[in-house]
Prior knowledge:
Elements: H1 11-36, H2 51-58, H3 62-68, H4 71-102, H5 109-133
Helix pairs in contact: 1-4, 4-5
Amino acid sequence: xxxxxxxxxxxxxxxxxxxxGWGAINTLIGVLAPIVGRGPVLVADILVLSPRTDAAMFxxxxxxxxxxxxxxxxxxxxxxxxLGASLAAFGLLIITVTWFGLRRGEPWALPVLAGxxxxxxxxxxxxxxxxxxxxxxxxxxDLPPLFHYRHSS
Length: 153
């Protein structure tokens, strides 16, 4: 039994395009994160979220903390490799489920993709909760940048 012909201009087509883009962005960030994060300084002057929130959470300016305890820089590098690999794998999962499932109208594909999105939202909620529980006030300006690379002189 053959389903309806796929049409990029349909609501399903637009959804497939958006999800393919989301998967591609995650894959790209995942591949580039370990490359961007191999320099001699903190990436974007942050440990996790932003200089301001990290200073409040960890008790000092992230760069000063790294100068005082250099293994923190090594920790950020290790976490960037792990996060990068996870994001790349996640992005490929989204692309594959979208292309081979959702695009073909498979009934399992949309719940899988929705579940992935809910897990991402829950992960961010848990991350932000750690900061809020520590008494840190968060704002939209504190969200981590997708890529913010500062060349050191």
